[in-house]
Amino acid sequence: MNSEVRPHIIRFFFLVLLQVLILRQVQLGEDWLRFAEILIYPLIIMMLPMRWSPAILILVAFFIGLIIDSFYDTPGVHAGASTFSAFVRPLVLQIIAPRAGYDPKQNLTRATFGMTWLTSYTAIFLLIHILAVQLLTVFTFYYWGELLLRTGFSWILSVIIILLADLVFNPKS
Amino acid sequence: MINLLYFLSRYGGVLAFVILELLSVYMVVQYNQTQRDIYLNSSRFYSGVLLEKTAKLRHYASMAEIADSLAKENAALYNRLYSQLAITPRENEVDSLLAPFEFIPARVIKNSINQPNNNLTLNKGTIDGVQPGMGVVLSKGVLGIVRNTSSHFCRVLSVLNSQTFVSAAIQRNGSFGVIHWDGVSPSRVILEEIPKHLDIQIGDTVVTSGHSSVFPPGLEIGKVANYYVPSGSNSFRIEVDLFADLSRINRAYIIRNRYWDELQSLEITEDK
């Protein structure tokens, strides 16, 4: 049990610190681009064990989002987006299921399912997550026009950063 | 009981999703409708302390730059002091001792400019005499208004926030209006409510008007970059370029009005 949860806890601390201490400072550009941001913490939710029941998964994701919110001063935005993306995670996994299907004991990593799988998983999951973040932000103040541009930009950059981080920190295979 | 367990195992995910999502949306709406800071607030202890630590590191890295800007600021202040001493008669010195505004220096430990509504955290709180409603300025420009205080920190509603309104005037002729942010660019704010018959020119300096107890009059804010009269309106819409680069600020001054309590109680009795 302990050794099973430990990597998730380490990943949690590392990625949350990376997100709130470094990536929060990154400003991508002027005007509409200012609201685009690089998100790396969704990787924690992506990799949570498959064996967990949906309710636990959603609860944990909600609290991860809440912690991010407390640093971003956006109460509810990241919590809501994380809750939503954790809710649809089983569906996303179904869409990109490998031919042999999943075994609940497997880890959701590149080592298990390969680079192509991880790329499509990251791409779909982040698209949903970032769209949810932007929608919740827009809901508060801003307008629809720039929403898709911002989503697209945040999405491409975040996917690249997450895949790079995975290559750097899990270099095996 | 068994039915309940069955129900939870079957629909627990949906249930958790609906409850937590509604909670999130509630927080989003709540935060924006009222100015009250709710649970998540970085002036709260844990994130406050962590942020202050990292801010210290960052400040250390940009120490040379800070020293430079402080030296410049000092020089400008000396200049002003000496030019005033040279011009003003002696009896006015008494006046300056009784000046109602006092500056509390503070460090910016958290800043944002890329949100639709921006806030800052400063390292001064109620212990240092900071109260909600006080103004915050930079050596050149207005930064915002204190919204919330804890004992060691305060949260500031940035001038780059849709909820901030600052009374401002054109320095050249004293015509005054209200500054707010339209959410477009962090280096530009909008000055409105100046009647369209008045004379405005591009390059005019915009200063605080002093029509409130929050900011002293005559603090420079920015320069008129562009202006026009929106159709159907009786007043100008003036775009003002800020003098200060809000993305690169380390230090700010919180303004305490010595007669704050007196003014407040006066206004309250009038309202009654």
Write structural notes for this entry.
The complex is a heterodimer of chains A (173) and B (272). With 173 residues, chain A is an all-alpha fold. Chain A has one domain (2-169): Arp2/3 complex 21 kDa subunit ARPC3, CATH 1.10.1760. In chain A, 69% of the residues lie in helices and 0% in strands. Chain A has 7 helices and no strands. The longest helix of chain A is centred in the C-terminal third of the chain and has 26 residues, at 115-140. Chain A starts with a helix and ends with a helix. With 272 residues, chain B is of the alpha+beta class. Chain B has one domain: Beta Barrel (Thrombin, subunit H), CATH 2.40.10.350. Chain B is 34% helix and 29% strand. A 6-stranded antiparallel β-barrel of chain B has the order 1-2-5-4-3-12. In chain B, strands 6-7-8-11-10-9 form a 6-stranded antiparallel β-barrel. In chain B, strand 7 and strand 8 form a beta hairpin. Chain B is globular, with a radius of gyration of 23 Å. The N and C termini of chain B lie far apart (59 Å). At the A-B interface, helix 3, helix 4 and helix 6 of A face helix 1 and helix 2 of B.
CATH architecture of chain B: Beta Barrel
- Residue stretches of chain B low in confidence (pLDDT < 50, at least 5 long) are 34-40, 85-97
CATH fold assignment of chain A: Arp2/3 complex 21 kDa subunit ARPC3
Order of helices and strands of chain B: HHHHEEEEEEEEEEEEH
Lateral strand order in the biggest sheet of chain B = 1-2-5-4-3-12
Q: What's the story with the biggest beta sheet of chain A?
A: none
The overall pLDDT of chain B, averaged over residues, is: 80
Give the CA-based shape of chain B: globular
- The portion of residues assigned to helices of chain A is 55-70%
